[in-house]
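Subject: for your reference before the review

Hello V.,

The reviewers asked for a structural picture of the protein, and I figured it would be easier to keep everything in one thread rather than splitting it across files. Below is the amino acid sequence we used in the manuscript, unchanged from the supplementary table.
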Amino acid sequence: MGRWARRLAHETAIHRLDAESALAEPPATRYADVFAVDGIDEFLTFFVPRRAARQDGVVRIEAGDRAWTVVLRSGEVPALGDGPADLTISGSPDDVYRALWGRPNTARMVGRVALTEPLAAP
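And here is what came back from the structure prediction:
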């Protein structure tokens, strides 16, 4: 998928969730694992590096059979890397995708939840 098409696909998917949440009875929309995993990767590689962290830590994100580790250093942009996790966000790809975008989800967060601040969706 081209970079622009990828960006638009995920932006549209999140706006769809927002629109559906305004309905009296929202449908039970679930995104396919391959799409949600791509959305997590796109979020971590496109949005996260655009803001500086305010604290140090390591966040591990586990979705299905994929995992990412984000290293936070105060005053620096977060970067993919490695290290022992201070916070782990895990669950189905769809739920982790929603969690990163700040939408209702059932992803699990274990550890220093305050570390999600630099990962918060724009």
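For the response letter, the relevant points are probably these. The radius of gyration is 14 Å. The chain has a mean pLDDT of 92.

Happy to draft the paragraph if you're swamped.

O.
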